[in-house]
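Two records follow; treat each independently.
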Amino acid sequence: MNIGITVSLQKYLMKARSFLLKEIRPFFITLPLVEVIMMETKIIKNQFDHLLNFRYERISETNLKVIMPIQSLFLNTVGYVNGGIISLLADISMGNTCNTFTQDKEDIQSVVTVDLKTTYLKGARGEFLVADAHLVKKGRSLNHIDCYIYNDQNDLVAKAQGIFANL
């Protein structure tokens, strides 16, 4: 990778992280209908976390929120977030909801996606997207999870259902 591109990417990621800490985090803490319980958030790191600048927030043992700043790279020709990016956000959110319950000492993922269904309800625009993943049923071999994707105006833009197999 070109050094100039690497430096530019690092600067962009630092600005995005600063935005998340100053602007987005207070938004979630002040939501009147959402009780935010601060818990230790353990996740399985993957290659997309650094690229997409995800921010994880554990709400409860069965609920995980993932915040993703929208980058111009994610937009389709109409200016909406590409459906594949939304599906990836849902997949990683739901997978980490399962992973955090059975995380091993080496931080190796403990589940893989078996089935993923994403329904797009509205074009996604704005500064960021929030994936709100809820464990529906944890089984011996399969876990069922629902995920709702919201934009920065708290509008529901997509919903997903996933089945994850325990490794």
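The next record belongs to a different protein.
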Amino acid sequence: MPALISVLRDKDLSVRWRAANALESIGVEAIPDLLELLKDQPPTHRWEAGSAVSILGQIGTEAKPALIKALRSPNKNVQIGAADALGVIGPDGKDAVPALTGALQSPDKLLSKRAAEAIGRFGSEGEDAVPVLIRMVEKSDASVTKIAANALGDIGPSAKDAVPALIEAHKERISQWSAENALEKIRTCLQHHY
């Protein structure tokens, strides 16, 4: 498998795609090597990191245990890649919500944002993260508030407790569009739900 991982760095795009497809078909056995690929990615190797995340996400629920563990890696790139891959898995990754909720509270803004995006992709299955997402809307800078508000909107009616924080964010013009969009999603879902 290390040979396939190294081919992800090939100059020929078609060669890289074939390697990515082969790793995806290998499945669970490729997970450790794919996580290793995320560790020290200089900017010139973003394609490989993106491929690793995509492949891990496509492997799906079988990759969840390794990805949840990777959220606790000391390497930020691995944590961010794991959050991204869990987001690709989507609602089937719902048992990752507690680990992603922990990542929401990271001092690393990029990791917090990626964890919020992943939780948003779980829809109503991300409900347990609502209290932390509310705190992010209330106490974060505009870029984090925007992502947290979007995640709350994607969670839908289960995020109704976020309405006061979203209204305040809207009033203060902090990520106004995101707050307005989240409020609209929650309102629409509540109307259809009840």
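Discussion point: Residues 3 and 19 are 9 Å apart (CA to CA). How would you locate this feature using only the token line?
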